[in-house]
Amino acid sequence: MKPPPFAYAAPRSVADATALLRASDGDAKLLAGGQSLLPLLAMRLARPSLLVDLGRIADLDYVREDDGMIAIGAMTTKTAVERSALIRTRQPLLHDATRLIGHPQIRNRGTVGGSMAQADPAAEYPAVAVALGATLRLAGERGERSVDAAAFFPSPFTTALEPSEILTEIRVPMRAAGSGWSVLEIARRHGDFALAGAVVMLGIESGRIASARIVLFGVAPVPVRVSAGEAALLGESPGRPAFEHAAACARDAVSEPLSDPHASAAYRCHLAGVLVGRGLAEAAARAEGSS
Amino acid sequence: MTGGIPKTIADLPTSKARYIGERVPRVEDQMLVSGRAEFIDNATLPGMLHGAILRSPFAHARIVRIDTSRARALPGVFAVVTGEDARATTAPLGTIPDGWGVHCLAVDKARFVGEPVAAVAATSRALAEDALEQIDVEYEPLPAVVDAFEALKPGAPLLLEEKGSNVVLHKQFRWGDVDAAFRDADRVVREKLRWNRLGANPMETFGVIAQWDPSEATLTCRGSYQTQGYMALGISAVLQIPAHKVRVISHPHGGSFGGKGGMRGTCIAAMLSRQADGRPVKWIEDRMEYLVGGAGQAWDRHYEAALALRSDGRFTGLHVTLLDDLGGTPEGAGAISAAKPLASFTGCYTIPVAAYDLTLVLTNKLPTGPYRGMGPPPHNWVLEHLVDTAARELGIDPGEIRRRNFIAKDRFPYEIATGNEYDSGDYEAALDRVLEMSDYRRLREEQAQARAEGRLVGIGLVSTIEPGVFDWNAYAIVGVPMTGVPEGATVSIDLFGKIVVKVGFSLEGQGQYTVAAQLLADYFGVELGDVRVVAQDSLSAPPHFGPGGSRLGVALTGAVLGAAERVKAKLVRAAAHLLQADPGVVVLRDGRLEVPGVPGAEMTVAQVAAVMLTRSDLLPPDLEPSPEATCVWTAPGRTPADADGRAKSYLTAANACHIVRVEIDAETGQVTIDGYWIADDCGVRLNPANVEGMIQGGVAQGVGAALLEEYVYDADGQPLTSTFADYLLPTISDVPIPETAAIVTPSPFTPLGAKGVGEGAMHTTPAAVLCAINDALAPLGVQATETPASPHRLWKLLESARSHAKSNR
Ligand SMILES: Cc1cc2nc3c(=O)[nH]c(=O)nc-3n(C[C@H](O)[C@H](O)[C@H](O)COP(=O)(O)OP(=O)(O)OC[C@H]3O[C@@H](n4cnc5c(N)ncnc54)[C@H](O)[C@@H]3O)c2cc1C
């Protein structure tokens, strides 16, 4: 469990970092919190010739209000997100999701950018980003670009990042008044990656569901939006019949469910349904409590 | 020697014991919490190299060719060894039963994923791992047999071709007229149960620094050894060097629970050191090696069991059929684990006759090893599950059916059907206590209410025996021929009256050093800090075994007090001479040697010791000038086993009664433990805080066994649980902190009346939690019959119950 030899660089700017990436011809890896990458190195499953440590680049670590959005630097740790008053009050879904990630030791080091770039199918953040309609800002040799979360996670453990691009910022909208949220998951133990998880957002106006978002994680190779369930909810009055129907849509939404010794595909789909049902009830209660 | 050892705390030569029996803070903790204990990976020797082991990626494969030339050519690589070296210079590993051993590095073929195939020593571990990648092994994969039942079939792939079969042992035991008991029974309950592989996971894996001395042809192995003397014998046999030329030094280690193993790793490191001209070679097993190729997997068991009973709920016979899957070879004491249940086969109950149909089989998986409890925990689950099924069928409360069958407290010592003798107990007292603590009646009322609301709430109530103070004779049925397990201690007093006690084991976590210090401080009337416990290596210590089989607390007490008695005898003779008194009237009391009733006729222990060591002219001529003595203790009255394995084996029988409350989420199958109560009787508690630690730790491991832990292999024998992301240990969020109570029934057979409790609640918790789950499931007509009761498995049961209910509608 020792990594094969590699070179190490700790650039001071994003430009220097992208230059290093470009020079290494796809053979370099960015190092953020190391919570996913270091085990891969130790098991010799990743063998980069160069590690480019993002830890010395100033100003990738922030949470701030910017243009009506919450802007989060890629190197912001999960603990910083968890402790951010801005996030807790203006986008509590992100706050709640953060507390489901691993354990405090992992959140102390693991970064927001690392979780997005790692794109683990069972991770909370990609699903939350998709549900919130977050935007990811990437810096590359040809300058900066923005990608919608919905287009950022094409397949498991891969992203829309080009080999010499760096994720610099995640921008999430603030919670709309009168909306409720929920993030629930089933894991074997507290802090484990989810066997199944569901992110739910519900807007309620005059007793009717005016907007709905349902995104599953842990059940499929990438975050799954339950569009049929969302559509079916619109205009309904929040309550069991509508939620049960949406839960049934969630069970059917997964075309390629994951399966492993801890949970079969059938069980995962079942759990997705249970969580969506419970999540909708929780989100509805919050929406009603907040408006 | 047991005659003179004090039988109770009141018999100690002190007017009031200040330490023994008290919650004394542990003397070893300062060293541990300040990070000063020298764990093996912290140790460095001059010129030391680092080893790494190349392991088979196949469950079963012929090794056609190994080319190590590229690895050897790497700068910084000093030794490379393969199975050919092992064949040339070592003997096969010892096995139980004897004669099934393979070499420490695979020769010709590999039998499980993770089996060592080659090894390298280099100037760093990273370089050694780089070198492993330069070794070319050509494998010819063979069909693997992974399932125990498949392995029994004619034509199954054979692990050892020359044996002609994968069956290591197949024996049927009948203790009494079991057929009659089942024929005449009013009712028989039967169950098929599956206990899946799990095992010990100490915080620290195994590690060793092996060093050959070519000049003297000796070998020194420093490492995290649980049982150094026993290991030294094995190393000597495998490496073919006389035992007196092997020195094993046990370093403080981060737990063991039986999982340390270390035989292959030690022998491989030694081979590397020899090839590297005697440079020391450190090999630290990493966690993936531990999980895939270590000594930590245990108890891969298929049970079929039946309990015969009368309509009043009295048990009349027990029949257990066990197919135990030992994995690739019987090198790891898996067979012993199948034999140990004989020591408490019929649990807390008067079951007059019993049968055991035992089959041990090899498959292409990691060899199984010991784990805390060494075999009875699955057996206890089987028995307690049958008892619960019987209670349910007869409509008797689980507490009540147990009460009706308990061995009554006035029937001890009590010989069980399988021949072992329980020393003492009061099982009803423990039951009553735990019923009261848990407010059992209210629990049942709440359960009824929850059921009415459609919630799945269950209450588990089980009562078990923990055999304590292991003896080899308990394992006779799998071919262990010995009786008695010597444990020695040397006690010496210096000229200042300070005390050193030398023992043959190192720190492992249980707190035995504290027990030794407590005993001696009270015995000689000194402060706890005036006693120092010193670990000796395998050549320097008196005969010893060390921790294992819930024995060291009791055995150490025997050895330390025995040695103290002998020191006292010398002090008395010296003092009598100095005080010009008859030795018969001099007594030791509260740290003084005195002639009762004669004012001024007294000396302190320190004064007498100092005279002995510095003024031989003042001593009686035939008294050696040494306030030091050794005692090697072994359990008294042990008998060799008869042909059916009947023996007085484990000296003590501790008892525990657990009640646990669980709730199953009917939609997801997740289990929550929301109440836990324990009454535990391990005789006199030498240090109650130590005992509580043993029980709490056992609860944690028991919860792991019941709900989380399982080593999974796919159909080709590939391990699917090679990291802690997949092998799930309970964490702080999963483990309840039970409410506990002590019942004290002293052992009449042990020094001070203590019983073995080192394996603790591991004997009871798996059964308690699983019985609670099945109590919750009972109204649905389904039962969990496989460990662990994972949410996935429970969900499948719930689904089957739901579809059943639908089709019946
Ligand atoms: C025991 C344990 C439990 C865990 N449980 C969970 C859990 O429940 N849920 C969960 O979501 N995660 C979990 N994780 C993973 C954890 O959240 C990681 O921190 C995260 O996946 C990666 O973040 P990091 O900062 O550590 O990234 P690193 O490990 O340093 O990097 C991960 C990958 O992202 C790339 N990368 C990092 N930053 C950037 C960037 N700015 N631009 C482009 N590429 C980048 C790296 O090159 C690498 O490929 C767990 C980890 C552990 C060890």
Give a description of the structure.
The complex is a heterodimer of chains A (291) and B (809). Chain A has 291 residues and is an alpha+beta fold. Chain A folds into three domains: 7-53, Uridine Diphospho-n-acetylenolpyruvylglucosamine Reductase, domain 2; 58-171, Uridine Diphospho-n-acetylenolpyruvylglucosamine Reductase, domain 3 (2-Layer Sandwich); 180-290, Enolase-like, domain 1. Chain A contains twelve helices and twelve strands. In chain A, the strands form three sheets. A five-stranded antiparallel β-sheet of chain A has the order 4-5-8-6-7. In chain A, strands 9-10-11-12 form a four-stranded antiparallel β-sheet. Chain A has a three-stranded parallel β-sheet with strand order 1-3-2, with helices on one face. The longest helix of chain A has 26 residues, at 265-290. The model of chain A has no long low-confidence stretch (mean pLDDT 96). By secondary structure, chain B is of the alpha+beta class. Chain B folds into three domains: 9-37 and 485-633, Aldehyde oxidase/xanthine dehydrogenase, molybdopterin binding domain (Aldehyde Oxidoreductase, domain 4, 2-Layer Sandwich); 40-142 and 205-253 and 261-293, Aldehyde Oxidoreductase, domain 3 (Alpha-Beta Complex); 301-475 and 640-808, 2-Layer Sandwich (Aldehyde Oxidoreductase, domain 4), CATH 3.30.365.10. Helices cover 28% and strands 23% of the residues of chain B. Chain B has a seven-stranded mixed β-sheet. In chain B, strands 7-15-14-13-8 form a five-stranded mixed β-sheet. In chain B, helix 7 links the parallel strand 10 (218-223) and strand 11. In chain B, helix 18 (688-708) crosses helix 19. The longest helix of chain B is centred in the last third of the chain and has 28 residues, at 552-579. The chains are: A alpha+beta (291), B alpha+beta (809). At the A-B interface, helix 12 of A face helix 4 and helix 20 of B. The structure holds flavin-adenine dinucleotide. Residues 29-37, 54, 74, 101-102, 106, 109-111, 113-115, 117-118, 120, 123-125, 161, 166-167, 193 of chain A line the site of flavin-adenine dinucleotide.
